[in-house]
Design goal:
- 49% of the residues lie in helices and 10% in strands.
- The protein is built from 12 helices and 7 strands.
- The protein is an alpha/beta fold.
- A hairpin with a 5-residue loop joins strand 3 and strand 4.
Length: 286
């Protein structure tokens, strides 16, 4: 039967920030992988296949060095508190058993908090996952941004800026989540007051048509112009999109209009000399 750790968890939030590495193999038991299940409150929803495979290869060669932290469930199975990546990688590596430390002194609420903290302290969470993790810790633990920043060893401004991403339209958040936009792009886009314009600019930025500086320039023009400027910007962007589509269909290639401060650039893509000649033929008088 698996042996339980005699470590105790205090009631305060700060006491949840124990170092997982301190759970040495001396206090560990072994469980069948089939007896263990992930925590449904795990904030990480996406596990990169490539990095997971790399971890699985390492585990296949060296085994699982750092035990999982789990707690027992009424059903007789065990729920992961910390270490889901190791559990997934161990399954991929073909292991049937894995070392664990059982912490039945940890409540369901604390287990959720620890799972979030472990993920927030690791790399590779996308910016939206990170922001949602911060928000859930603040909402469910009653934390201020100052306390959360101190517990995670981060600047308060970092927490504030991250949470600000959640106020952006869902379409923009999705582009940030899948890596089409950077946090820098979103900081520039947040300065756009009209949501429809913001979304249009976000898609154009994701396609490589606009840089951070160009988005910032559009935002400045929106601020300086009259109240109807957002509508004018939207109309101009819509017109550009329509021109790109029409011209692209005629020329049989991708066309982009890049707006600059003093002049705009019409960009026509071609693969080789033959395709260039075909494009040029459309501009020649018959």
């Amino acid at each position: 039967m698996a042996r339980k750790s005699d470590k105790k968890t205090e009631g305060s939030f700060s006491d949840l920030f124990f170092d997982n590495g301190s759970e040495s193999s001396e206090g560990a038991s072994t469980l069948r992988i089939s007896e263990i299940e992930p925590n449904k409150d795990q904030p990480r929803k996406h596990f990169d296949k490539e990095t997971l495979q790399q971890l699985a290869d390492s585990i296949g060669e060296h085994g699982v060095i750092q035990p999982l932290i789990v707690r027992s469930l009424p059903s007789g199975s065990y729920q992961i508190i910390a270490g889901e990546r190791r559990w997934r990688a161990a399954k991929m590596a073909g292991l049937s058993e894995i070392p664990v430390v059982i912490r039945d002194d940890i409540t369901e609420e604390q287990a959720m908090q620890i799972a979030m903290i472990e993920n927030l302290q690791r790399e590779n969470l996308n910016p939206i996952e990170e922001a949602l993790g911060y928000k859930e810790l603040i909402d469910r633990c009653g934390l201020t941004q100052d306390k959360l920043a101190k517990a995670l060893g981060k600047a308060r401004s970092s927490i504030t800026n991250s949470l600000g991403l959640l106020s952006m339209p869902n379409a923009v958040q999705e582009l940030l989540r899948n890596g089409s936009l950077s946090v820098g792009h979103c900081k520039a886009l947040k300065k756009i007051k009209d949501e429809a314009v913001m979304i249009e600019l976000a898609h154009r930025t994701a396609e490589g048509e606009l840089s951070v500086r160009q988005v910032e320039a559009i935002a400045r023009r929106e601020d300086k112009s009259a109240a109807g400027s957002a509508k004018k910007i939207k109309q101009k962007l819509t017109y550009y999109t329509e021109v790109e589509a029409s011209l692209g269909e005629i020329l049989g290639t991708k066309v982009k209009i890049n707006e600059g401060k003093k002049e705009n650039v019409l960009q026509i893509k071609f693969k080789d000399k033959d395709e260039l000649q075909t494009i040029l033929s459309h501009f020649q008088d018959e």
